[in-house]
């Protein structure tokens, strides 16, 4: 059962990280429904590495475009890198002050259920907006900041970082494809920041790495499942809307209220 725990954590983290359904909320639910011991901070770091490499691999063309902007000294041309920084700053700064408070008072199953339903409904409203032909490459500083402020809401379990950033972009009338692309690009610095904090906490703690191989296995599972879930979502939104995720979140919230 111990190996199964790491396998399931890798699957949950990988599938839910980039879909608008909340990875943190599902991990809270997983912990609530099982009696397994905590997998440890090292495993948390490992599965985040897995999802980070998955989004980097999938977004390699976009990342190559950003790198070319730097080496061709075009960083101040369309300023897209600076806009990504602007969109990231609110979550970094506000998260520094509220992370412990949110973890202490909001990381519970009832909050996850409420936020899952509420933010699913908000995403539905945003997804009805008439879109414009706006590429993520041409996002303005104001739009980047607004989406960055939406990203702060993701500290609430169940809100979903992908979900709220896509919601913000949809309210700004970005089409589903470009809204999701920008959301995934924003995930890279956020995951890096989360990894840095986790690594610092792990270094400062007295915990030893007793689950090296299971954690590496969980990381690999997270990588594969994250890549599959990203591919599935990007193909899905080309032909339909976010309703499948919205309905899932509402049903999940109702299920938690009734049975958990």
List keywords for this structure.
260 residues; mainly alpha
Give an overview in words.
- The chain has about 260 residues and is mainly α.
- It is about 75% helix and about 0% strand.
- It has 11 helices and no strands.
- The chain has helices spanning about 1-15, 25-35, 40-60, 60-70, 80-105, 110-125, 140-150, 160-170, 175-205, 210-235, 245-260.
- Helix 6 (about 110-125) runs antiparallel to helix 11 (about 245-260).
Q: Any chance you could write out the topology, listing elements then pairs?
A:
Blueprint (H helix, E strand, L loop, with lengths): L1 H15 L6 H11 L7 H18 L1 H12 L8 H26 L3 H19 L13 H12 L8 H11 L4 H29 L7 H25 L6 H17 L1
Helix pairs in contact: 1-2, 1-3, 1-10, 2-6, 3-9, 3-10, 5-7, 5-9, 6-8, 6-11, 7-8, 8-9
Distance between the termini: 22 Å
Gyration radius, rounded: 18 Å
| Structural class by helix and strand composition | mainly alpha
Question: Which oligomeric state applies?
Answer: single chain
- Share of helix among residues? over 70%
**Could you tell me the strand content as a percent range?**
under 5%
Structurally, how many domains make up the residues? 1
Low-confidence blocks of residues:
none
| Overall 3D form | globular
**Count of alpha/pi helices:** 11
DSSP strand count: 0
Instruction: Give the topology string: H per helix, E per strand.
Output: HHHHHHHHHHH
Q: Give a short account of the largest sheet.
A: none
Mean pLDDT: 88
């Amino acid at each position: 059962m111990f190996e199964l725990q790491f396998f399931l954590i890798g699957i949950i983290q990988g599938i839910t990280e980039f879909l608008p359904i909340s990875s943190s909320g599902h991990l809270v639910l997983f912990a609530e429904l099982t009696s397994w011991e905590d997998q440890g901070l090292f495993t948390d770091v490992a599965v985040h590495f897995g999802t980070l490499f998955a989004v980097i691999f999938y977004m390699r063309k976009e990342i190559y475009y950003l790198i070319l902007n730097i080496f061709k000294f075009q960083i101040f041309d369309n300023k897209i890198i600076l806009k990504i920084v602007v969109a990231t700053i609110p979550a970094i700064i506000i998260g520094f002050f509220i992370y412990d408070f949110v973890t202490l008072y909001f990381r519970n199953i009832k909050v996850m259920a409420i936020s899952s339903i509420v933010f699913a409904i908000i995403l539905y409203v945003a997804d009805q907006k008439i879109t414009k032909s706006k590429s993520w490459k041409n996002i303005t500083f104001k739009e980047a900041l607004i989406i960055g402020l939406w990203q702060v809401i993701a500290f609430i379990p169940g809100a979903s970082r992908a979900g709220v950033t896509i919601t913000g972009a949809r309210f700004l009338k970005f089409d589903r494809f470009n809204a999701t692309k920008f959301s995934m690009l924003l995930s890279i610095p956020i995951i890096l920041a989360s990894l840095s904090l986790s690594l610092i906490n792990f270094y400062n703690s007295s915990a030893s790495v007793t689950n090296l191989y299971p954690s590496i296995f969980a990381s690999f599972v997270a990588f594969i499942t994250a890549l599959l879930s990203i591919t599935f979502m990007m193909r899905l939104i080309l032909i339909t809307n976010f309703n499948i995720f919205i309905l899932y979140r509402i049903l999940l919230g109702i299920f938690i209220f009734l049975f958990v």
